[in-house]
Design brief:
The protein is of the alpha+beta class and 148 residues long. It has a single domain, classed as Gcn5-related N-acetyltransferase (GNAT) (Aminopeptidase, 3-Layer(aba) Sandwich), CATH 3.40.630. The chain has 4 helices and 6 strands, in the order ααβββαβαββ. It has a 6-stranded mixed β-sheet, covered by helices on one side. The model has no long low-confidence stretch (mean pLDDT 92).
Length: 148
């Protein structure tokens, strides 16, 4: 599944086994346990075709928080409203499960991602992490929160 040029945002080499490793090992915070990590496919309603995935860690940094490790919509399906539809329903479901906030980490170089997440209500900033100066080969991320 191809999405976007992630290497341009974080400087890391492409990992063709990322999804497989995520499924088997999880994307865990420090001290995290695999049992609290979930990965879910995103499928078209009409054909059940897989067009993306979303992965999350339940209970970080607090027990009533959810941390989005990754959300990916395949390039052929981007900019058609699928991501916003997924996020709208996801936020409703997560609220029903008793979570009061969702956090996501976004590269400061990922302009489309920053627009997507702020449009989805992630309008609180908990921190900026990474390099402290802007330059070639320097990278930083921002952690955004959607809290209700």
């Amino acid at each position: 599944m191809a999405s976007a040029p992630v290497t341009l945002w974080d400087g890391k080499e492409h990992d063709p086994h990322y999804i497989e490793r995520s499924y088997h090992e999880g994307i865990l915070p420090e001290g995290g346990v695999k049992e609290q990590f979930r990965i879910q496919t995103i499928r078209l309603k009409t054909t059940e075709e897989i067009v993306g995935f979303i992965s999350m860690y339940h209970g970080y940094p607090q027990s009533d928080s959810l941390y989005l490790a990754m959300m990916c919509i395949s390039g052929d399906f981007q900019n058609q409203g699928y991501g916003q539809e997924v996020m709208k329903h996801f936020l409703l479901e997560i609220g029903l499960l008793g979570y009061f906030e969702i956090r996501v980490n976004v590269s400061l170089r990922n302009w489309a991602g920053l627009r997507f997440w702020t449009k989805s209500g992630f309008n609180l900033i908990s921190g900026i992490f990474g390099d402290t100066e802007f330059a070639e080969g320097k990278f930083a991320d921002i952690e955004l929160i959607n809290r209700w």
